[in-house]
Amino acid sequence: MTTYQPLPTDPGIDQLDLFALHFAPQVQGLDWTKAEQQYRRFLNLKKCYPNQLLMPAGAAWQLWQAHVLDTRRYRSDCERLFGRFIDHFPYLGCGSTADRRERHFAEQLYQGLYARHFPAPSGALALSN
Question: I need a labelling partner for 80 at 20 to 30 A (CA). Which of 5, 40, 44, 71 fits?
């Protein structure tokens, strides 16, 4: 069992305007409130663990995809929030065995950090869509 450790949240991430992403095809049909919460949590993890390769899951992944495709907004948001562009490599795990291991590690790291810093809802899986 993972011990819950609150993560400091960045006010800039909390205030990030994601409204335009509502219209992206990748997020149609998602529970917007949950998706937005999971994506903001992913961004907070990236802020607190800047040198770690993290692979989000579910709705956070889909919202990240939509954000990345809005290149101007994504670039500007990254510069403002992180002081640099956060690269995104959607094909991680699609190549060699080493590449698949790296993706698996990034997914496991993300899930572990998510579980450590964000409480799971009672009776529900925190990373579900």
Answer: 5
What is the value of pTM for the model shown?
0.85
Which tokens go with 76? 């500007």
> What whole-number distance in Å separates Cα of residue 84 and Cα of residue 98?
27
Structure token pair of residue 98: 């080493």
> Phi, psi (5° rounding) for residue 75?
-60, -50
Tokens 């529970």 belong to which residue? 31
| Averaged pLDDT for residues 38-50 | 96
Sign of the C-alpha dihedral, residues 105, 110, 113, 116? negative
Q: Is the dihedral of CA 39, 129, 91, 28 positive or negative?
A: negative
Question: What CA–CA distance (Å, rounded) separates 73 from 20?
Answer: 10
Q: Residue 73 above 80 pLDDT?
A: yes
Question: What is the rounded distance in angstroms from the CA atom of residue 15 to the CA atom of residue 68?
Answer: 18
